[in-house]
């Protein structure tokens, strides 16, 4: 059983290796064809007059720059779309922040009667006990302000 498992693994590896080798051979053949085509084009270019060689070089450069410009325009369009999307998101988040800030300014108004009750309770405890007192953590700044005043 172990020997059969090892044989199966070896056959799988051999098959994968053969497939990789075939893919590499195909890629090498394609590259060799491309190289031969480039060599022929180069030899043909050398046979042309210097003026024609310059003109061909300029045409190739114009083609390359045109393609590069098209790619850059496409990239610019993508970036502009992304900018618009981000601006919309920013507006949404700014609105949420404003709503949140507005709700936070409303909370202290609602808590004020509670805070006044706490002030009274703190004052009574100070008069009664002259020591430790109990308070809510969120009321600490208010407590400190009242102790100072």
Automatic annotation (TrEMBL):
Coiled coil: 3-103
The entry's keywords: Coiled coil
Protein name: MYO5B protein
Organism: Sinosuthora webbiana
Organism lineage: Eukaryota, Metazoa, Chordata, Craniata, Vertebrata
Gene this protein is translated from: Myo5b_1
């Amino acid at each position: 059983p172990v020997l059969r498992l090892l044989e199966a693994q070896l056959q799988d590896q051999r098959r994968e290796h053969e497939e990789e080798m075939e893919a590499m051979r195909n890629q090498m053949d394609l590259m060799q064809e491309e190289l031969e085509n480039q060599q022929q084009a180069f030899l043909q270019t050398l046979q042309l007059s210097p003026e024609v060689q310059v003109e061909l070089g300029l045409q190739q450069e114009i083609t390359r720059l045109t393609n590069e410009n098209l790619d850059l325009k496409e990239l610019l369009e993508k970036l502009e779309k992304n900018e618009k999307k981000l601006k919309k998101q920013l507006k949404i988040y700014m609105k949420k922040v404003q709503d949140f800030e507005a709700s936070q300014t409303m909370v202290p108004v609602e808590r004020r009667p509670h805070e006044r009750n706490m002030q009274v309770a703190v004052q009574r405890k100070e008069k009664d006990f002259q020591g430790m007192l109990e308070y809510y953590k969120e009321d600490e700044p208010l407590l400190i302000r009242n102790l100072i005043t």
